[in-house]
Amino acid sequence: LKQSTGRTAGRLTIIGTGPGDPELLTLKALKAVEQAQAIVAPTGRPNGASSALEIIAQAADISGKQVVEVHFSMQKVRLSGSRHRSVEESWSKAADTVLEFTGQGMNVVFPTIGDPAFYSTAYYLLSTVQERQPGLVTEVIPGISSVGSCSSALKAPLALGDDMLCIIPATFGDDRIRQAIETFDSIALMKVHRCLPRVIRILEEYSLLENAVLVEKCALDGERIFQDIRKAAHEDLHYFSTVIVRKQRMGTAGRFIVPGTGDRNGRNVDER
Amino acid sequence: LKQSTGRTAGRLTIIGTGPGDPELLTLKALKAVEQAQAIVAPTGRPNGASSALEIIAQAADISGKQVVEVHFSMQKVRLSGSRHRSVEESWSKAADTVLEFTGQGMNVVFPTIGDPAFYSTAYYLLSTVQERQPGLVTEVIPGISSVGSCSSALKAPLALGDDMLCIIPATFGDDRIRQAIETFDSIALMKVHRCLPRVIRILEEYSLLENAVLVEKCALDGERIFQDIRKAAHEDLHYFSTVIVRKQRMGTAGRFIVPGTGDRNGRNVDER
Fold this sequence. Notes:
2 copies of one chain form a homodimer. Chain A has 272 residues and is an alpha/beta fold. Chain A contains 7 helices and 10 strands. The first copy, chain A, has helices spanning 27-34, 51-59, 85-103, 122-132, 146-154, 174-183, 196-205, and strands spanning 12-16, 38-43, 66-71, 108-112, 138-141, 165-169, 186-190, 212-216, 224-226, 241-246. In chain A, helix 3 (85-103) crosses helix 4 and helix 6 (174-183) packs across helix 7. Chain A starts with 11 loop residues before the first strand and ends in a 26-residue tail after the last strand. Chains A and B meet through helix 1, helix 4, strand 5, helix 5 and strand 6 of A and helix 1, helix 4, strand 5, helix 5 and strand 6 of B.
């Protein structure tokens, strides 16, 4: 914990926890948790539990560590526009907490669901911490992405051969979604829980409904796979819902999923 | 190893090994290796060593397990077109080997670099195996993707807020790359090792050179980060080279990387 200057200082390590199954943590992330004295974890609701914290608590003994949960506003953030005040306050509060711990020589872990590379609030925190204390030692450990995990659950690739792949939030306007569908071979639409009927309508226009599949709560208890995404239209879907569309299909069978494989436990999908 | 029918049968588990650092294996992948009696691993060259095998051998004791390396032709595969004969033969041979082991009741692991979701040959193998033996129990365990790992090394997100992200092989034609650049906020160009001058020329057209960064051999010995990708143009780049372009930049500093962070070890990039 001593730097070469002799000054005691902790470090901030951002870790991707993967989509939910604690076994999908990396060895490196687990080690970072074990070597940390403090954990600062994000929650989506003011008094809700942190999913990211729950994942690491299932894989490591976190008793004896300082644990602080910080509420991050789910306000939509447009980087090119102005930030909502409650968003700024979330980052500011989380940064305060992190720097208080590192100032005491503690190593801090900030866990974030999935892979920090994809739409993680962790980078807002990192940016804020770096602005306040540029010399702080920081590290980012990648995690299993939600789209990668969906692909594994389906036992089907997101992209293969000469596919062009895009990953976009389904909350985008119709025109941008149409543009993605027209340009790309493989499209992952994240966060479809509130706009599935619209996505279904657009996919119907392109006769791509049969090339689409929906994975809800991938790698979490209650995971569901809808090979006919219309069947999910009237369900109360979880926030972690992803639609994957592939124009090209591998093998000879005209189905998205490799024939005969079913879901991750060998069961056929749509049959649970 | 007994199925409910009483028949002895092994299973095939495809695991993503992550980009190279054995610590980036997941707990689940490590467990699969430990519980396997046989490993069938892909090599890119006829007599070359398997990178995927090397990664798992650093994390687990594989002595005492059957290990077979199978050469997978690197011939470009177009799913919509006909397959090259040597490609078909690779899959066929690998499938034979897998089914021979599972037929003897062995659990087989097939390791693949990165995340199987992204352009992995493992799906050609899975498809072939499933065609021959539809009832075989199979599982796919996701891995840390090379693009996710690059993002972590840079301590910068691939996508944030309302970014639209695409992942494409840089070997595509100029028109498709231009189309991706025009449509998307964030573009990951994989396998740029042989076409970097062309990529630089296209990015120059859009004045996006300063928004681009190149990561070579991410999470492997000899990892290099080129924040000025022009400096990499005359290098003999490794196959694992990725250019990431982001139009929007986070924070106030006009740089791709979060200011003051440097590379994964806290050093500034371009300074090694």
